[in-house]
Amino acid sequence: MKRVDDETDSSHNGSEIEVTNNPLICGLPDDISLSCLARVPRKYHSVLKCVSKRWRDLVCSEEWYSYRQKHKLHETWIYALCRDKFDQIHCYVLDPTPLRRCWKPIQAIPSRSLRRKGMAFEVLGKKVFLLGGCGWSEDATNEVFSYDASMNSWVEATPLSTARSYFACEVLDGKIYAIGGLGSNSSDPHSWDTYDPQINSWISHSDPNIVPEIEDSVVMDGKIYIRCGASSVTSHVYSVVYEPSSGTWQHADPDMVSGWRGPAVVVDGILYVLDQSLGTRLMMWQKDRRRWVPVGKLSPKLTRPPCRLVAIGKSIFVVGKGLSTVVIDVGDVGNMGRIMVGSSIPKLISDDDVISCKCSSI
User: Is there a domain that residue 88 lies in?
Assistant: First the structure.
């Protein structure tokens, strides 16, 4: 396929010169070149983009993303949304593979989001989303911004169908779910929105089992679990689960809810919760026995609550204040209740509070 990449010079003997694309790698068909370049580690993708416009366009393309996914070449990085002592938000990224791991800031966050509270933070494909939120003198908004991890740039995305703040956000079956929370006076407090990237549109739904007070959320066994605050009807904390087959929300197992007392993450279909009420303990929900069991305790010298959890493979990353991070391998949990010692990642100079952590694979 031919394409004009440079301006044509029509002054040379009065004729136009057509400039065609050179191959990605001289002497190789482009499909072979893609196979070679796609094996370059993700940390060097920014270098590849500096080689030529064609290489930059390739690294930023859906073709590149799909090829690495299809051939299991993708690498997972962690993204964190934080708030500093001046109430301004920041985003950071962590490549978990190097020996000398460190969090790096993501620049150029949209200015309209810098001081908002109650925003949701989610990842779909290679894009990181900032959704909704509110301010001291600003009602809940439906604005959405997305960060393309390949292009390293922010754009304004399709807005929510409902203005929301302090709401749950999860990805299920390739769609983003924005659930509950606080909205404007005209918003339905028992609603949720779904975003379908295929049609680039949000669709609004309603269910009386959803309450505005959202504490946490996870996806497990192909369902979305929401840990709610005390409802206006009952004074106790409870959880609801979304059943995709019926499109409805139902009350979750009360035994499971009883131990869900902190940030949660799912690894290989198993729910883990970081209980920070008495020290810092990692708990595991055993579905077959319907009980919570302690996996182990974390040294208070390693963690700096409040913490958030995120997982890559069988490794759980416990991310605390200042992005202090402890990595725990839960592949072997036979010795229950032990003191767990994991590898640690140094914290930032600042003491930013961690709002949310998500993973993106490219």
Answer: yes
Q: What is the pLDDT of residues 108-151, one digit of tens each?
A: 999 999 999 999 999 999 999 999 999 888 899 999 999 999 99
- CB of 139 closer than 8 Å to CB of 184: yes
Assign 259 to helix, strand or coil.
Answer: helix
Alpha-carbon span 265 to 350, nearest angstrom: 26
Question: Does the residue 3 lie in any domain?
Answer: yes
268 three-state secondary structure: coil
pLDDT digits (tens, 9 = 90+) for 7-32: 334 344 444 333 456 899 999 999 99
pLDDT in tens, 304-346: 888 999 999 999 999 999 999 999 988 865 555 555 556 677 6
In whole angstroms, give the CA distance from residue 127 to residue 175.
12
Whether residue 151 lies inside any domain: the answer is no
CATH of the domain at 55: 1.20.1280
Q: Which long-range contacts (CB under 8 A, 24 or more apart) does 89-95 make?
A: 89/113, 89/114, 89/115, 89/116, 89/119, 89/355, 90/352, 91/128, 91/147, 92/323, 92/348, 93/149, 94/323, 94/325, 94/345, 95/42, 95/43
In a shared domain, residues 6 and 57: yes
**Tally of CB atoms within 10 A around 193:** 23
- How many C-beta neighbours within 10 Å does residue 285 have? 21
Amino acid in position 330 = V
Q: Classify residue 45 by burial, with Cβ atoms within 10 Å: 0-12, 13-18, 19+.
A: buried
Quickly state the pLDDT bin for 350 (edges 50, 70, 90).
confident
Is 26 a member of any domain? yes
d(CA 55, CA 69): 18
Q: Domain count of the chain?
A: 2
What residue numbers bound the domain in which 16 lies?
1-74
CB contact at 8 A, 45 and 150: yes
